[in-house]
């Protein structure tokens, strides 16, 4: 079971990396075209802003399981092992709650873009598929954060365990 979860998380990280590479290439090509040739890639602004959103959500999904996010250590470092586990579980639970709400509200954004036929400025491409990609990243974040919560109590019995990426 753990191997399946690890493979799933590796796939999430692969998608996040591909998205990051795609947005980087689009922005570099657009900038180079604009400054070197006085020509821009049509819809590069719309596509890059939506791809950056997808990068953020898929990146959140990646750290949702790995726990590589920023943490404040003021109280955490002074706490013992049991208190650290409680702090970690509380932090993961709050993150899960906000991620679930964000996923729920983002679904309305996807359906709204679809029903209103929202499109890009230059080529009039529909934007709902890219917004749906953002939503899928957010939905995967719910899964990975949930897996982190389930994993936290089962981590090794090391009293200095810190699941928040310390």
Descriptive overview:
This protein has one domain (2-154). The chain is elongated, with a radius of gyration of 19 Å. It is mostly helical. The chain has four helices and no strands. Helix 3 runs antiparallel to helix 4. It is 71% helix and 0% strand. Residues 156-166 have low confidence and may be disordered. The longest helix has 36 residues, at 2-37.
Strand content: under 5%
- Described by the principal axes of the CA atoms, the overall outline is elongated
Beginning-to-end CA distance, first to last residue: 25 Å
User: What number of structural domains do the residues give?
Assistant: 1
Main sheet?
Answer: none
Can you write the helix and strand succession as a string? HHHH
Q: Could you tell me the mean pLDDT?
A: 87
Number of helices: 4
> What is the share of helical residues?
over 70%
Q: Give me the count of strands.
A: 0
Give unreliable regions as ranges: 156-166
Name the structural class. Answer: mainly alpha
Radius of gyration: 19 Å
Topology:
Layout: H1 2-37, H2 44-66, H3 81-115, H4 128-151
Summarize the structure.
With 166 residues, this protein is an all-alpha fold. Helices cover 71% and strands 0% of the residues.
């Amino acid at each position: 079971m753990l191997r399946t979860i690890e493979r799933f998380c590796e796939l999430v990280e692969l998608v996040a990396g591909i998205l990051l590479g795609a947005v980087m290439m689009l922005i570099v090509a657009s900038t180079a075209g604009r400054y070197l040739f006085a020509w821009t890639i049509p819809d590069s602004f719309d596509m890059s802003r939506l791809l950056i959103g997808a990068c953020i959500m898929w990146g959140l999904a990646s750290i949702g399981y790995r726990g590589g996010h920023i943490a404040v250590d003021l109280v955490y470092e002074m706490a013992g092992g049991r208190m650290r586990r409680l702090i970690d579980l509380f932090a993961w639970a709050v993150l899960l709650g906000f991620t679930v709400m964000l996923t729920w509200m983002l679904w309305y954004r996807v359906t709204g873009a679809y029903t209103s036929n929202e499109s890009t400025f230059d080529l009039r491409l529909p934007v709902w598929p890219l917004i749906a990609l953002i939503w899928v990243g957010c939905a995967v974040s719910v899964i990975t954060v949930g897996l982190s919560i389930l994993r936290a109590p089962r981590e090794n019995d090391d009293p200095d365990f810190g699941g928040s990426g310390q």
